[in-house]
Amino acid sequence: MTVILTNDDGIDAPGIRSLQQAINGKGIVVAPNKQYSGCGHQVTTHKPIQVDRRGDREYSVDGTPADCTRIALTKLHENVKWVLSGINAGGNLGVDVYLSGTVAAVREAAILGIPGIAISHWIRKPLVIDWEVAANWTAKVLDKLWDTPLAPNSFWNVNLPHLAPGSPEPAIIFCQTSIHPLAVDYKVDGDSYHYQGEYAKRDRVPGTDVDVCFSGNIAISQISL
Fold first, then answer.
1. CB atoms near residue 130 (< 10 Å)
2. Do the bridges between strand 154-160 and strand 218-224 make them parallel or antiparallel, or are there none, so unpaired?
3. pLDDT at position 183
4. Strand 28-32 relative to strand 58-61: parallel, antiparallel, unpaired?
5. What is the residue-wise DSSP string for 171-195?
6. Gap between the Cα atoms of 30 and 143, Å rounded
7. Tens of pLDDT, residues 154-195
8. pLDDT tens digits, residue range 94-128?
9. What are the residue boundaries of the structural domains of the chain, listed by start?
10. Cβ(84)–Cβ(135) under 8 Å?
11. For 192, left (φ over 0), alpha (ψ -120 to 50), or beta?
12. CA-based angle 172:6:113, to the nearest 5?
């Protein structure tokens, strides 16, 4: 089973290595050569995309996450069964899926007829992500999702909670995505507008992915094109 791994934090980010660990080092890495956080479903059509082969199972791409998926599925490998994207350093909950490069990578896979799973890790400051723990949680999630039916033209969006060391193991909960965005606000400094928002203060409707993740559990949502 060929699995493509990508992300939007860049090929050298710890999250994609944690994702590799979750699938026991398997999979083909086709990831951006730099960070593309928040790029959404941007694709490159106006210039060549440089692809540097780092080894038999790793490609560094001078393009967006969606570019990586496109190139991986159409030019680099045949018979791909899954595209996995992440593990993103930061949540991609609710309507974040429209902004996220992490999610765009698997949305592109769904567009091309391949199932995908986007995995993100909410950051609850001042805690720091333990990537070993993230890999262990992700492995459990994948064990469940490999055999869970996925509707055509859909993909999975997974958000890991951020728990203090010693906390109980999180439950894995299938849930709906929230439609309420993080409040949009800007600090004005002359002609400059500086975005400001506190992620943890976003609206958390009971039972939605935001509420599930903020409550300390793993949120899994099925998203359709």
1. 15
2. antiparallel
3. 85
4. parallel
5. PEEE-BPP-PPPPP-EEEETTEEEE
6. 22
7. 999 999 999 999 999 999 999 999 999 888 889 999 999 999
8. 999 999 999 999 999 999 999 999 999 999 999 99
9. 2-224
10. no
11. beta
12. 80
Position of tokens 């570019």?
67
Angle between helices 14-22 and 131-145 in degrees, nearest 10 = 50
CA dist., res. 18 & res. 25, Å (int):
9
Token pair listed for 36: 């593309």
Q: Model-level pTM? A: 0.95
What topology is assigned to 2-224 in CATH? Stationary-phase Survival Protein Sure Homolog; Chain: A, (3.40.1210)
Token pair listed for 5 = 């791994």
> Which amino acid is it at 217?
N
Q: How far apart are CA 84 and CA 107, in angstroms?
A: 11
Q: Are 209 and 219 in contact (CB under 8 A)?
A: yes
